[in-house]
From TrEMBL:
UniProt cross-references to InterPro entries, sorted A to Z: FliS, FliS_sf
GO cellular component, one term: cytosol
Family according to the record: Belongs to the FliS family.
Pfam families cross-referenced by the UniProt entry: FliS
Upper taxonomic lineage: Bacteria, Pseudomonadati, Pseudomonadota, Betaproteobacteria, Burkholderiales
Any GO BP annotation: bacterial-type flagellum assembly
Name the record gives this protein: Flagellar secretion chaperone FliS
Alphabetical list of NCBIfam families matching this protein: fliS
Domain of life (superkingdom): Bacteria
Organism (species): Acidovorax temperans
Keyword set, alphabetical order: Bacterial flagellum biogenesis, Cell projection, Chaperone, Cilium, Cytoplasm, Flagellum
Subcellular location: Cytoplasm, Cytosol
Keyword RNA-binding (UniProt): no
Amino acid sequence: MYSHPSARASAAYRQVDLNSQVMSASPHQLIGLLFTELRTCLLVAKDAIERKDVTAKVRFISKAARLLDEGLISGLDMQAGGALAENLHKLYSYCLVRLTQANAQNDATAIDEVLNALQPVMDGWSEIGNQVHT
């Protein structure tokens, strides 16, 4: 697929910027970046479902699932985290199931459900960061 040189340059710049953010981020900020990217993927996937763009839907739901599984779930310390880590693991696992269903059934409401389920955790994480930096 052809993309205009300025679009490729812009994408490369965004990738460099993201790499810079990741390299200089604290562990707390890394999770915040995961949440930000996860939210973006979910919104783009929902839009793709509504536009009937199967390729984009699959790509962004798959990316969201990887962020949940390889980023958030794998980052949980189940021994030190106790009940909180266990509850987050259950929430993230449930979200993975719903994303699989959203993908298979072209169900934008399932993506809304995932966004709504994760929003309190994302808001809480952001608030923790605000308290640390003030």
